[in-house]
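Quick one, T. Sequence first:
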Amino acid sequence: MNKKAKTKRELPLHFMLLPGALLLIVYSYIPMTGVVIAFQKFVPINGLFGSKWIGLDNFRYVLQMPDIWQVLWNTVFIASMKIIVGQIVPIAIALLLNEMRNALIKRGVQTLIYLPHFLSWVILGAILVDILSPSQGIVNQVLGAVGLEPVYFLGSNSWFPGVLIASEVWKEFGFSTIVYLAAITGINPALYEAAIVDGASHTRQVWHITLPGMVPIIILLATLSLGNVLNAGFDQVFNLYSPSVYQSGDILDTLIYRIGLVDAQFGVATAIGFFKSCVSLVLISISYYLAYRLANYRIF
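Structure tokens:
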């Protein structure tokens, strides 16, 4: 097939990509011009090109903020723990579900654990506030029934990060479980048959066949998640936190929200967002490189 015929055949495919490309340009690339606000003393009435240029002053101001390092630590810690626990739990659940022989019960459990993925944090946040309420929440009622004092899960700096991590894993582990179950179904059944013939126990089969068969997808998902180290979940934190837990629960995204939209310090908020984007770009590049090297994953 010559080049002209090939181009003519592929032309409809390019037209199919056009709407998506236009949306990407309009809503992703054009708004990137707002990055200049990070280098300005931005005044909305003056616009992007009329505001005073102040260079790196906004970044210096950010570095001098007394709580910026605590916020950065909170972000990295919460996001990292979500990634780690969010990998371990789905793997364990996938292994357990794979051992279930009743197909009806298995599908029912899969549906139940997958449902929270479709709920927004506005809904789940309200549910968690009611469940964890120190006065009327069912969790503290159970604790009171066994003689324990009520715990302020959403008002204690000791408990709040754990609540964020646990609730995020609860919401999303069903989706990852399905991915791991798909990886398990791709393992050659002949390997299990050979193991049975050789006298391997059920535990040995899981350890030497199932888990090694899942390793490529585990490595792939783990490396791709590195790009989210600075994304601790704005929707979740915003719907659950309060000033009493800023010390342990305030993250970069919520700090940007308060500085930019509440305090109207647009330049400072943009500087923090620009820094976060640059670090995320580096981490995403590293994660895709590792995914290619360790799991032979390529975008193109």
